[in-house]
Each structure stands twice: as C-alpha cells, then as structure tokens.
Write a structure and sequence with these properties.
Length: about 300
C-alpha cells in the first residue's frame, strides 16, 4: 500500500513540478462548453510519447497516467509546435513579480559627476542621509509621504551643507535625478505579459507611480505593488502574499525577481520561485519557459 501511495504521489509531483511537457497525456475537451474539434485531432508522437492536443486554450481536464487533474491548476495555455501542429505545453508560472530598482531601472554609480561632487560634499553624503534606516523605512512603508521624506533629508543635510537653503537646493537637484531604464528587461516583461500576469513589486515612496508614468513605464505591468501604499516593505513575507493576491495566483505559481538577497530568500520562504537578479542573461534564462508564443504560429 505504501508503495502504491508513493507511486501516486510521484505522479502528482510530476504534474505540480511542471516540466516542459507532460508525456503520455490525453488532453480532454474544453469543459466550459466549447465544441470539440471535428474531426478529433490526430495524436502526435514526440520522442515516443503520444500527446493529443485540444483546440481551445481554456479550462481543460488532463488525464495523466490514470490520474485526472484540473488544468486550471497547472495553467496549460502556452503552445509549442511539432511539424506544424500546435501542442499545448505546461507553463511553470502564472505570474511574474519583478523588482524595479536594480532590475528594471538602474541609478548611476557614484563618480565625478554625481551630486556630492558637484555640490562640494564628501562622497556618499546624500545617500547616507536619504537612505539611513530611520529616514528610509517610514518613507517606503507610507508613514510619511515622499515630500515629507525629502524635506527631512534636507534638514539632516543642513549642517554639512552650511545652511538650510543650500541643503534644500541639493535635495531639489537630487530629486530631479531619474534612473536609466533597462530596455532589455522592459522588453522581456512586455513579451511575458502576453502569456502571464506581470507585477512590479517595489520598496518605494509615494512618488513611485508618478515616476513610472514620467518614464513611460506605467503600462508595463498589470499590477504595481508599491510598499508605501500597503504599509509594509520587503522582505516582510506579507508583501509577497499581497502581491500574489493582487495578481490572482497562488504563491507557488509566481516567479519573483529581485537584486537583493534578503528579498529573494523571503520570497522562497513563502513558496515562490525566486531569481536573484545579477545580469540580463539570468532573467532571459528564467523567463524562456514563458516566452514561446501564446498562440499558434502560422506556417511552422
């Protein structure tokens, strides 16, 4: 009995682990009432496995070695092709949750043209004031507005700047800076959005939404989770649960991307697949399973 249960569990695990294609599977007709294809599609043999494809990418039941599973749970919506025939394949994620700064956007590295140097301040002065935990945490959890945060930073800089007026001038110049957008990352997210829900999840101030609009990024994602709007910041596990709820996917069906180790670890601890972003190739590898066209390509 134990051996039978173990075998059944192994079969279930093979479904929920979501490989690139389920072998020896029979795809049933759309359960929402769409008519069955006439005549019924012929089986297609791939590497010795027979896969029957259905005609409608909606809610299917899948029979896998005698076990019936609801395909809504494993999201069979993507297509691949074999000798010109569309074959439904299992995609591993329903949603991609992406950090903004450090992944999609990048601030310039300190150097001879940075504001500290321009204003005659010691290197790192502005950052030390702005990103001190006692200043930053209230700003990214919504305890204070972006304007209040920047005003407080100016107050903190007044001494080193020599006057409050000069400190305000420095903060005004700093506030006008905008990070560069990584167009390769933006392009990948745009493509992924054709087959999955995309969310931007950022520890940010109340200015985030206007900054995204200013840079033409406000329509890049289906959802923006700004921590200053929800009162908690990454790596608090509640951020990931809220993000999953907003994209309408269980946590195990979400891919989370961030450049900060602690945030990646926290995502994994709540059950998400998580990528520690370091370079564009990492993201390309992680998203390649979602990037095949969501509809059949003609003439292939």
């Amino acid at each position: 009995m134990a051996a039978a249960e173990a075998q059944e569990q192994e079969q279930a695990d093979r479904i929920t682990a979501l490989p690139t294609r389920l072998p020896d599977a029979t795809w049933a007709v759309d359960r929402r009432g769409a008519p069955a294809p006439t005549p019924a599609p012929e089986p297609v043999e791939i590497d010795g496995s027979v896969v029957r494809h259905a005609a409608f990418p909606h809610a299917f039941d899948i029979e896998y070695r005698g076990r019936t599973e609801d395909v809504e749970d494993v999201s069979v919506h993507a297509y691949e092709h074999h000798q010109g025939v569309p074959i439904m394949t299992v995609r591993p994620y329903d949603a991609v949750l992406c950090d903004i700064d450090g992944v999609l956007r990048h601030w310039p590295a300190p150097g001879p043209t940075d504001l500290d140097h321009v204003h005659g301040l010691p290197a790192g002065t502005i950052a030390a004031a702005a990103f001190a935990p006692s200043r930053l945490q209230p700003a990214i959890t919504g305890e204070v507005t972006d304007e209040q945060w920047r005003s407080a930073v100016a107050t903190d800089l007044a001494g080193v700047c020599g006057s409050m007026d000069r400190a305000r001038s420095v903060v005004t110049a700093w506030s006008e800076l905008m990070p560069s957008v990584d167009q390769e990352v933006a392009s990948l997210l745009t493509r992924v959005r054709e087959v999955a829900t995309v969310a931007l999840v950022s520890n940010a101030t109340t200015r985030l939404e206007s900054d995204l609009a200013r840079q033409g990024l406000n329509d890049l994602a289906d959802v923006v989770v700004n921590t200053s709007r929800i009162g908690i910041a990454k790596p608090d596990p509640r951020v990931y649960l809220i993000a999953a709820e907003r994209v309408g996917s269980p946590v195990h069906r979400c891919l989370f991307i961030d450049d900060t180790t602690a945030n990646v670890i926290a995502a994994r601890e709540v059950g998400m697949t998580a990528l520690h972003y370091r370079r564009i190739e990492d993201l390309q590898d992680a998203l390649c399973v979602l990037l095949p066209a969501a509809t059949p390509r003609q003439g292939q």
